[in-house]
Amino acid sequence: MGILAWIIVGLIAGWLAGLVMRGGGFGFLGDIIVGIVGGLLGGFIASSAFGIANPVNGINATSILVAFIGAVILVAILRAVSGRRAI
């Protein structure tokens, strides 16, 4: 998957994770980074636990869903480590 596709999927996944997890989010660049890292985390979990080959493979609903789930997990971990609470 090209770098532009990673950025687009990351932006969408990070933005959605920020909405679902409530809170101020991480800003435009932060949401992209959280989404991209979430895509890597979600892809690793999907391929390891469920045996899905290449789960993040372009700009499509499956890739966004996998990246979104990974981003939600990442935001939960970041908030647990930093002690930040959603209001």
Report the structural category: mainly alpha
Give the overall shape, derived from the CA principal axes.
globular
Q: Terminal Cα separation, in Å? A: 36 Å
Number of helices: 3
What would you say this structure looks like, in words?
With 87 residues, this protein is mainly α. It is built from 3 helices and no strands. The chain has one domain (3-19, 27-80). The chain has helices spanning 3-20, 27-49, 61-82. The radius of gyration is 12 Å and the shape is globular. The termini are far apart.
Blueprint of the fold:
Elements: H1 3-20, H2 27-49, H3 61-82
Write a brief structural summary:
The protein has three helices and no strands. By secondary structure, it is mainly α.
Descriptive keywords:
87 residues; mainly alpha; 3 helices; globular
